């Protein structure tokens, strides 16, 4: 087998390879070089080395169901094709009965995780969520409830007249078990004003994630790439996540479970109508996975999110630092309304085949990365 150095063509990457082999942390400038170099295979080789050190050939997936309880949203994100304003014929808000009926459908048999992110609907307050979570957990105690972006949580706490702390306590008592990582978008404040009006303060996202960690509520984290951002914005974003994870770990908390790079989908939204933004390329998508694995040394898992980049490219991502293909993701809406070309769900056997054909070991997990062993 070739040594790591032998797989690197750009000599500027050799000092980074030395750091990787020594388990040393990469710097901001190192991150910029990872984006600047044309030697994608060299970047991928370093990321794959880190992946093997952390996880061997284990690759995780979960039987999951995506559900959005409302598409009504008062936050104006220019990249979003999902949002609807009150009065829009597409507008909806699901009741607990609606969601339970949906989960009772045969295609949801065996689902272990319910992942819910939605719009910012001013009619939904704490009583709605307490009732929703309590009733879902009563009917499906085995399903893990993963709900709320950090921005959603902050919004629904405010319109409920509660502190985020109190809102979170009540949701956890009703059954909330973890949070997905959406809503982070890109942390640079000037860019946020251009792409997600209403989510201008990145510190709200970071502070809310820190609060979740202090309460023992695991979360994921994300970055939206491929829009108006540049390399230095991406490196800044990733290092802010790394710094928060350092703080959570120093305080004795688990913090972020996984990082998910999210490729911008360039159809049916205001941002693509006002700017020339090309669809992300395969090299771009693989680089984002690899750079994340190299810079986020304290976040255990990196996902290749097939919904955004296609199942085939996500499979290749397993050799560029990713150790998780996410899940079956039944009925994803948000990315597909913005132009995602992937299926709206994959069968378990499809995920296993993708993983095993790439030479990895497929392991079914729960949301906390506990592995299920076949009966």
- The CATH fourth-level homologous superfamily: Aldolase class I
**DSSP, total strands:** 11
Order of helices and strands: HHHEEEHEHEHHHEHEHEHHEHHEHHE
CATH architectural grouping = Alpha-Beta Barrel
The largest sheet, given as strand count, sense and whether it forms a barrel, is:
3 strands, parallel
The gist of it:
This protein is an alpha/beta fold.
Task: Walk me through the topology.
Layout: H1 14-22, H2 28-36, H3 40-55, E1 58-62, E2 64-66, E3 76-77, H4 96-103, E4 113-116, H5 126-139, E5 144-147, H6 150-159, H7 164-174, H8 189-195, E6 196-197, H9 202-214, E7 219-225, H10 231-250, E8 256-263, H11 270-274, H12 282-295, E9 301-302, H13 306-309, H14 311-317, E10 324-327, H15 334-337, H16 348-357, E11 361-364
Parallel strand pairs: 1-10, 1-11, 2-4, 4-5, 7-8, 8-9
Antiparallel strand pairs: 3-6
Structural overview:
- The protein has one domain: Aldolase class I (TIM Barrel), CATH 3.20.20.70.
- Helix 5 (126-139) packs parallel to helix 7.
- Helices cover 43% and strands 12% of the residues.
- The radius of gyration is 20 Å and the shape is globular.
- The longest helix has 20 residues, at 231-250.
- It has helices at 14-22, 28-36, 40-55, 96-103, 126-139, 150-159, 164-174, 189-195, 202-214, 231-250, 270-274, 282-295, 306-309, 311-317, 334-337, 348-357, and strands spanning 58-62, 64-66, 76-77, 113-116, 144-147, 196-197, 219-225, 256-263, 301-302, 324-327, 361-364.
- It has a 3-stranded parallel beta sheet with strand order 10-1-11, covered by helices on one side. A 3-stranded parallel beta sheet has the order 2-4-5, with no helix packed on it.
- Residues 331-344 have low confidence and may be disordered.
- The chain is of the alpha/beta class and 375 residues long.
- The two termini are 37 Å apart.
